[in-house]
Amino acid sequence: MQVALVSILGPDRVGLVSAIADHLFSAGVNLRDTTFAALGQGAEFTSLCELPESLGLDELEQGLAAVEALAGAQIRVVSYAFDHKAGPMDLITHRIEVSGGDQLGLIARLAEIFAQYGANIVRLDAQKLPDSEGGRYVTRFALWVPAAQAEKCLAAVTNTAGELRLVSRIETLG
User: Which pairing describes strands 137-144 and 120-128: parallel, antiparallel, or unpaired?
Assistant: First the structure.
């Protein structure tokens, strides 16, 4: 089995994910870890894909380029050089959300806390909400935190958010 990284960056439009997923399905591609995000007027789709033996990387890239909904998009299909099987530090043990006014360096500060306590960031999402929704900046982390460090790590996040007058919400997963 060949595993490829499919990365698409282009204009956002209704039906974009449907068009991409349909083409990949029709080509016999199995999606593994996949993310999609609207980024202003643009959008990004990234997926680890299992390709059938009969499908080459160039052929898949050319096929995606012919999809009408991807007109004007940057499409990249490359062999995935890393082990695609999840390791123990890819299992999410905590979800953290920090929100409030936009703070320069917030992600850097929180990422430093996570590194200090040996936590691995599995997923990260940050966005500035429109003024109609309060204009808040919301940062969400999905983390693997070593059990022995969890209490200290989470306390450091709560304290840092409080010092910055931000609201933090922490969810511990089973």
Answer: antiparallel
